[in-house]
Every structure is written in structure tokens, then in C-alpha cells.
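Complex record, two chains
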Amino acid sequence: LSIPGPNSDHTLSEPPKTPRGEFAAIERIRRGLDRRQPRPAPGEVWIGDDAAVLSDPNGILLLATDLTVAGVHADLEIMGLDDLGWRAFVAALSDIAAMGGKPGHAVVGVAGPPSTDLDLLYEGIGEAAASHGCPVVGGDLTTADQLVVSVAVTGSVVDGPGPVLRSGAAPGDSLLVTGALGGSAAGLRLLREHRARRQPPSGAEGLFQAHRRPCARLEEGEAARRSGASAMIDVSDGLAADLVHMAKASVVGFELTGIPVAAGATEKDALGGGEDYELVVATSDPSAMVEEFTALGLRVPVVIGCCTDDPRERTLRGEKLEPSGFEHPWS
Amino acid sequence: LSIPGPNSDHTLSEPPKTPRGEFAAIERIRRGLDRRQPRPAPGEVWIGDDAAVLSDPNGILLLATDLTVAGVHADLEIMGLDDLGWRAFVAALSDIAAMGGKPGHAVVGVAGPPSTDLDLLYEGIGEAAASHGCPVVGGDLTTADQLVVSVAVTGSVVDGPGPVLRSGAAPGDSLLVTGALGGSAAGLRLLREHRARRQPPSGAEGLFQAHRRPCARLEEGEAARRSGASAMIDVSDGLAADLVHMAKASVVGFELTGIPVAAGATEKDALGGGEDYELVVATSDPSAMVEEFTALGLRVPVVIGCCTDDPRERTLRGEKLEPSGFEHPWS
């Protein structure tokens, strides 16, 4: 069994040339595991949503994991190891947010070169944990050639409606996002431009922050669940890609009327950039959702369109929405 | 922030030259996180044991994670990707066994080159999951230069005594192991010898199996907990190293009278080899433990010595036990 060397053709946030990989591989893995495993208990959801939904006598336990790889998900030329740690933590927590769950606890695995500044890395991890109310309760530490941070998180749903799946959207449901998109992608681009010109980055602190220190929308996810969201997903791969995941799982199409774009970002950033970690929510009662968010003092979610009954329909302002967003190449 | 290249001086199962790294780093990380995090609730144990112990209205939730890196923990010259997957899964499950817990669910993260044979890797993961009764319910998949498999598992303790910590051993307690040790290290050595001579490995199938397909001792761990174990740890770094972890946490010393060595292995393999995943148990009532194991049809655990009240005492047949076992080098 040979494992070839570095895959230098794979760079941050650029879609691969052959988009046949990651999602097909996940589907194949799921089918292979299904043959050996018992069925999930009623109400449980295993592989395929943002987090696994496990039944628990006192409610629902959520479980999710996420990997962050230096040079793939995080460019250490334009951010610190603390930022990488923060982002790794938020990427996993965002999966709990996307189910409408409350964060529980996290375990963190770090594989990296022995010279890695663990104190700086864990500073970012600890800041993200404290800021989102999800303590780190254990982990593992090992040497490897390349820095890989794995974060696994639990979450819970104890009151109100159950976890919000990707698969519950119905034709006619409104689609909303919890905030403007594209900030992370624009921040990445600007940070790289400054780096190439050997200038210190300045003038777009909001976008740099959006890229280096995104937030998991945990309160927003819970508010969406309680106010009757029918489906939800977080924007990790890019709005266009993540909307397609939700539409496929729900067997609906969608018509978008417009996208809220972060100041300084382009609509292309907003559609394809990913890693904004805002939530996309489907609901049959958008007013109830807006009311709930307002009552909690959260930013008002923005309607971007609606679900339709033709699963092939994917449009923005009447034009076909081109596929974009990030997928890892797997053979 | 620079991340240097491959650390070629770090090879499988050989202790590093400077043993100051991993455990000191973990302690530093724990202290750093403690400053930012709330205290664990009464009865909870966070960083520092085999698995985190989290309070749950209906019992105890256990949570652990483990990373397996190709070339560090698993040599793909002498095992298949399915074996690597199996071992990665068992390494995490063994942390649940070492608390006396029942396995719950697992999430698996895989970072690796796009050409990685995911089907073969997940065959081993799926086999380990089915064989140990711990379904895979989610995960993450990403590209990286080197194959890293992260497994996070939950577990539960619902009846009888609570989880067995590393820290509960008292002077006078007997020390037992659940099986002969050194098989994994001897299997690794023989597989490499055959490989160097370009011979197909044969003649020591039990040892090859011990290295490629170790088992997590989940039933043994539960039996030990129910029969009054005072402390427990799994043999992952090597008996000598893991006993020291337990003795330090319990503030006791130990006198070993002898070690059960796997057929074909040496006592050095048994003391320093690691990755056998047998359990080391302290108890004030070894007869009750032997009775419980016998009643369940489990292999009878073997007494290897006892705990003493001098924390500096670490002997085997009256001789000072030299430190051995595996620790990752961290600066």
C-alpha cells in the first residue's frame, strides 16, 4: 500500500478541477458501514447531517467532529497558530449550531511536528472554547509531519422542537441566512495580497477577523430551532454548495432572490467562499423566526429566497446558479 | 510561524532520546485551559485520565479521542490500511475500556492524500466498530500530505460503581493485568524482520495479529469496575510507562513480582512495547475480581504485584524498574 507524497495541487479554498471526490466518497463509506452496523434507533440520525443525533433518556445527544489541516484549511503565512486553533474549534462547534443544539464538551487531538508552538495553538483553542461556552475536557497529542487538529464536540437538545436536519425543507419554505456572507473569503484574498506585496495587512480588519476568527452561530441555531426551522445547515463549504447539500437532502429546489454580501466582499465570495459559518435556515414561518431573533437581541436573519418543488431548480435572480464551493478531491 | 518538514528521527515504538516532551506538554496545556474554563462539576473528570467523565442526568457520559498517524503509530510497510483503521478505532475504544465504560458511538476523521484507499481503510474501521459494538455515526474527510485518523468515542457508566480513574490506587492494593503483554511489540519486530529479508511473514500469526488487530478490553474493563477496581489504565504506551502514569496519579509506588509475557515476546517487549491494550487494574480485593472475570467466562486476570506507600518505589523482582515505553517528543 503506497501513500504518495505531498499533494501540492491542492490549495486553500480553491475548488478542485475534478469535483467527483469528497461527497461521493462519504456516500460510499456510509453504505459500507451500513452493511456492518445496526440501524439507528428511532429518532436517531447517523452519518449524513452536520452532527449525529443520538437518543439519550433525557433528550438528544449531538456528536460531531472536524479536522483542520495546516496548508489546506488554514494558511499559516497569513494567520497565527492561535487563529488556526480557534478556527478548528469553531468548525466543529458550527456543526452543533447547525442542528440547533447547545454546546456540551470538546476533545481535541493535535498531530504535528515536535517544534509546533502548542502554547500558541491552545491559546486559540482555549479562547474559542471559552468564548462559545464549550470546555475542552480531553484530547490526544502526537507527532506528525503536518499539523492536523481534530476537534470532536458534543451537544444537546433538551427543550422545544428536536434537532433541525438538512432534510426537512419543503417547497414554499422561505430560506434565510443569519448574516452577510463572503467575509472570510474576501479576508483570505486580501491577507494574501498584502503578503505577496510584503505589506502588513491593514484597512480591512473586519474581513481579516472574519477569516481568522469566525464565530459559530450557536444562539442563532437554537433560536431557529425553537421558532420552527424545517431545515438548517452551516455555511462551511460555500453558500451555493451548502444550499445544494440541503436541497438534495430535502428533495427540493430553490430560487434565490439575492444574497447579503459582507462589506468588502463580492457576491462570488459570498456564494463560493465558505467558512463564514453563518447558518442557512428553511422555514414555513419566517416572521416567527425574525420575531424570535429580535426578541433575543440577535441580528435579524435575511430572507434570500425560497424552496421549490423541482429538485433540479437552483437559481439566483432567475439565472441558473453555477456550482461553486469547496470539495476535497478523493479518488 | 514556521512549521518545519518531516521529523525523520521519530520512528515507531522507539522511545525518543529526550523524554521531556509529551506529558509535560499535556500538563502545560491543561494548566492553560484551566485558567479560561469553568471547574468540572462534582464527579466530573476532565483532562488527565483515559477518558473525560461528564455528568449526565441518567449516569455518566465518557468522551475520549485518539489520533493514529501513518508512519508514527502504524507502519504501512507491514500492515494494510484496514489494519491501520482497526488500530485507530481500538486505540480510542481502549480509553473507554480503561474507565470501565460501555461503548457508545464513534465519529471518525480522516486526513490523508487523495489517493488513499478509503474503502480499505474504512473496512478496518467498520470491522473494529462492529466487533466492539460501537457504531460509527459521523465523521470528517479532508486532504493532507500524511494519513491521520482521528477517532472520538463516547461511553457510558449506568450501573454499579462509577468510572475507574487512574488516581484511586492505595498502598497495599494488588495490581493485575488482563492478559499477557509484549505481543504487539514482538509482532512488529518480526514483521519488520521478514520485511527486511523480503520474506512473507509466517510462523508467528498470533503475534502478527496482536500487532495488527489488537482488541479493546471492554468487557474486562466493566468487570473490573463492577468488582471494585480502585484504579485502571490501558497499556498503550508500554506497561512500565502506563504503570507510572497510574502510580503518579494515585501517589503510590509499586513492587512487581513478575509480568505475563506473550508467547514469542520478551519481557522487554512486555514492559516497553505498548499497544497491547490489555488493562492494568489495582484492587484491594483481587479474589472478587478473579471471581467476577471467571463468572463471565473472561480470561482470568494475572496478579503482577502490589502498590506501596512510597511513590518513589518502582521495582520488578526487587530491582529498580528502568523507565521505558513511548512518549512523543515535544519541545
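Note: Chain B touches chain A through 87 residues (CB under 8 Å).
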